[in-house]
Amino acid sequence: MADPTDGRGARPVADLELQGITKRFGHLTALDGVDLSAYPGQVLAVVGDNGAGKSTLIKIIGGVYRPDAGEVALSGERVAFSDPADARRAGVATVFQDLALVEVLDVSTNMFLGQFPRRAGWLVSRKAMDAQSRAFLDDLKVTIPSVKTQIGMLSGGQRQIIAIARAMRTGAHTVLLDEPTAALGVRETAHAKDLIRELRDRGNTVICISHDMHLVFDLADRIQVLRHGRVAGVRETAATTSDEIIGLITGSSSDEPHAIARSE
Amino acid sequence: MTVHSHTSVDPVAAGSLQRTDRRDWGKYTQQAGLASCIVALGVYFTVKNSNFASQDNLIELLRAATLYFIVACPVTLVLVGGGLDFSVGAVYALGAVCSGLMITHGIPWPVALCGGVGVGVTVGLANAAATIYLSVPPLIATIGSFFVAGGIAVVITDGIDVYGFPDSFTHIGSGDIAGIPYLIVYAAAIGVIFHIVLEKTVFGYNIRAVGGNRDAAAANAIRVARVDIALYALSGGIAALAGILGSARLSSASPNAAGAGFTFQVITAVIVGGTSLFGGVGTVAGSALGAILFAEINNGLQVINVNPLYQSIFIGIILVAAVAVDQFRRKRRFRAGR
Question: Buried (b) or exposed (e) across B242-263, using 16+ Cβ within 10 A?
């Protein structure tokens, strides 16, 4: 199983490939030999119980942690990110659960954090920044009263959407989302889902951690289940059921060791 | 358009409803309040004694504010960047005596001035190193360097004032253009430069990002440590420069000049001017207003014959009141947003 055929007949190149990722915190082994493959134009959902290692895995891909063992490869080339900035330069953007927005700054400044458009060498081109932010948010059908509004004055959902929009704006090819709809209202969740689909349709590789089974079945092309720091299984969304996934999460059903889907 | 499209997620509203990307004037209410305070106090002092509004007195008032304001400029940036610099009062004295000693030992004053500023920058770099690489909180690191710098200033002079400066040097602190003292001109120029740096440059935007959310800034590829180093170096250098200008004005450099009282006045002016101790928020213009307000209180109380010793009491009350008003305003503003 897990033939990554995306329904359009093409067999995409594995954009992101993890092999044997192990991460220990003192005596605790958070991840133990985890493999993962994610493909352009697809959403991979990573699910699992609390403490299964989902966030640790995302943080390793995003450059926050360095694995104790194992390899990360982007488009076939081995990479080792020293920090999130390093990962972002390589085209891997993370939308963290705490969003990494600066509350006291306005929307467009946050959209361009660390990549301010310049004029005259060292001045920030405020006009270009505001115009591009506005155009970009309009394109995504995000309605913010003003791109000069401070982030601190926006709702949690609006912040989440700005954070996702920022990841899209940076031109990242791989976007990691950590619980993108936690604490969002119904309409905001719907909009966040639209944004994630938009990301996918633009050919990005999307990896999404979520507890929300509806969201996972709604969005994901494939679902990878983690349990106690190991891969409990990988399923094509179209070929599985909520019950099977929940069984894998709780451990009431399990793949044999090494029966885990690989893309080779 | 739907009437309920004030939420963020109505895909139908498509952004065209509220395309008013206007400047957020709400940020400037503290400065506006401060400016009205200055004007109201000015009117009060003038009514009590019309000499207050005389040109000579207003120039004297501004001159009294200049040295505080010059140092307040980089200190504003440090606070906006989420740091704190308590060492400026001692660096002021250290810069003055270092360049003073160089001058009295025959070194040309422009070279000595640069040397004194260099000493200030060095203290700033030490502050940055202690906070970044030794993880000492800025408050502690800069109180430490306050004592060290102040101590060095006393040791190298045996605690005695340095004097005997050439006129060409004292002129830079005491001369004037068309009745306006050079010091006011310097302060205005430095203020404009720091305002532009903070509000317009990539460095200024990075300062706000680092002060507003250090982790977010780092996660978005802003070199956080580099921003810190630049801020503390600027703060040390400008504090030393102010000390040197002060020594030129008085024709002597005292190892006991400025000190803790100066540090407190500078930081108080900055905070009353609307700069947050918690980083990310603040303006150079606000700090200018803060420095002018204190100079006005000091000057006005003398003009209307109130014992100037009352000044500290007023300043203390104003500081706490300004921050309380700011907190209240912020709470209301953000609650309305959510």
Answer: bbbbbbbbbebbbbebbbeebb
CA distance A195 to B140: 46
Our count of domains for chain A comes to 1
Which residues, at least 6 apart from B181, have a Cβ–Cβ distance to it below 8 Å?
A: B59, B63, B66, B174, B175
Whole domain around residue A68: which residue ranges? Answer: 16-102+168-250
Write down the pTM of the prediction: 0.83
pLDDT the model gives residue B150: 96
Closest C-alpha among B59, B58, B88, B56 to residue B72: B88
Angle between helices B224-250 and B167-174 (to 10 degrees): 110
Helix (H, G, I), strand (E, B) or coil at A213: helix
Edge-to-edge order in the sheet of strand A69-74: A28-38, A16-25, A69-74, A77-79
Which residue is listed with tokens 């040295």? B67
Contact A193, A215 (CB under 8 A): yes
- A interface mutation test: which of B9, B23, B24, B30 has the most A CBs within 10 A? B9
CB contact under 8 A, B217 and A96: no
A69 in a structural domain: yes
Question: What does the mean pLDDT of chain A come to?
Answer: 84
CATH number for the domain that contains residue A225: 3.40.50.300
Contacts of B338 in chain A (CB under 8 A): 153-155
Q: What is the rounded CA–CA span in Å between residue B248 and residue A129?
A: 45
- Please name the amino acid found at residue A38: A
Smallest CA–CA separation between B228 and chain A, in Å?
Answer: 15
Dump strand ranges (E) for chain B.
162-163, 176-177, 180-181, 252-253
Residue A161 domain-assigned (yes or no): no
Q: Which of A226, A224, A228 is nearest to A207 (CA)?
A: A224
A183 touches chain B (CB under 8 A): no
Q: How far is B281 from chain A (nearest CA, A)?
A: 7
Confirm if B266 and B68 have CB atoms less than 8 A apart.
yes
Give me the sign of the Cα torsion angle A50, A52, A56, A62. negative
Return the H-helix or E-strand segment holding A235: strand A230-236
B21/A146 CB distance under 8 A: yes
Amino acid letter, A94? T
- Mean pLDDT of all residues in B101-109: 95
Mean pLDDT of chain B: 88
In this predicted structure, what is the pLDDT of residue A11? 43
Cβ pairs bridging A and B (under 8 Å): 151
End-to-end CA distance of chain A: 11
Domains in chain B, ordered, with CATH?
Answer: 54-337 (1.10.3470)
A132 at interface of B, judged by CB pairs closer than 8 A: no
